[in-house]
């Protein structure tokens, strides 16, 4: 059987949540996109994967796919491999150019334009 919290506990909980939500955050430093990119580069958050030598075990790569996706395409061995960046065929579209989803009406207007 689940124990129900008392009303005083809930009241204290919601008071604390409202205090946090209405607290002044103007003194906090905001990070720019460049700050995040530099931070990731400095801490090696996104290491680059070295291209494998697919010719080393060509018989295997011609018959089977690898578990990490490398050498599945012998012309481009890193295409579609695990832990690699997605190469887009078309640039992404965002309303603010970074991360805001596009407006439905705006996208309909651009598609219907001659």
TrEMBL record:
Gene Ontology biological process terms in this record: response to oxidative stress
**Keyword annotations from UniProtKB, A to Z:** Oxidoreductase, Peroxidase
Q: Which Pfam families match?
A: An_peroxidase
The UniProt record lists the keyword Oxidoreductase? yes
Q: Could you give one GO CC term from the UniProt record? A: extracellular space
Single GO term (MF): peroxidase activity
Cite the PANTHER family for this sequence: OXIDASE/PEROXIDASE, SHKT DOMAIN-CONTAINING PROTEIN
Q: This protein is called what?
A: Uncharacterized protein
List the source organism: Ancylostoma caninum (Dog hookworm)
The taxonomic lineage of its organism, from the top, reads: Eukaryota, Metazoa, Ecdysozoa, Nematoda, Chromadorea
């Amino acid at each position: 059987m689940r124990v129900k919290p008392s009303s005083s506990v809930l009241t204290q909980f919601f008071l604390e949540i409202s205090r946090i939500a209405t607290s002044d955050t103007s003194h906090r430093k905001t990070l720019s996109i460049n700050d995040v990119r530099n931070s990731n580069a400095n801490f090696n958050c996104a290491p680059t994967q070295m291209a494998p030598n697919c010719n080393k075990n060509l018989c295997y790569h011609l018959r089977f796919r690898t578990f990490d996706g490398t050498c599945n395409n012998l012309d481009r061995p890193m295409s579609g491999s695990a832990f690699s960046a997605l190469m887009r065929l078309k640039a992404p579209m965002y309303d603010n150019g970074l991360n805001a989803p596009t407006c439905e009406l705006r996208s309909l207007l651009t598609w219907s334009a001659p």
